[in-house]
Amino acid sequence: RRGKASERQRQLSGIVLQKALRDAVRLRLIPHNPCTEVEKPRPEKREMRVWDEEQVGKFLTAAAEDRLYGLYVLALASGLREGELFGLEWTDVDFENGAITVRRTTEEISGAIRVKEPKTTRSRRRVDLPDNVVSALHDHRKRMFAEGHAAGPVFCDQRGGYLRVSNVRRRSFRPLIERAGVPVIRFHDLRHTNTSLLLLQGVHPKVVSERL
Description:
mainly alpha
């Protein structure tokens, strides 16, 4: 099973096993916790990859007709985490002033989607958007209204529910990367791409940090 489980899955399995054995010791079912002598699995650090402006342009051109085009435009322009993007609801979008407010985030655990508060107080923030991003969100809203999704998540599945990160990656993001002919990156690296492009444009690092 080791070759089939991801680093994160092994890490979570270790946490669950550690707690179970700790409880067993507390209940005096076993004399000691054998996990205390076992080294905890550490996820491998993945190399961060970003796109340049030309590659971003190619990707967005390939994604122009995709149902989630607005998602990719917003991700590249805002630097939001994937859970923050998927947790956005229409009440969080201020079309008049061109901004969004991060109030919640989603996470997928064992196939179930959980909606929760942002990581920290600073994660609960307002992010101003360029006009072209607001326009893309307008177009996305029209499309969602036509599908019958007038409320709830900004970026939803066909039934109007919260998106699953795994489905977006497999059914939309990766096929679009292949179609665009750009380097393969993780969805999370759209956030890093945003940071990289802002810094190259001369935006002060403190401003970039506050947006993130």
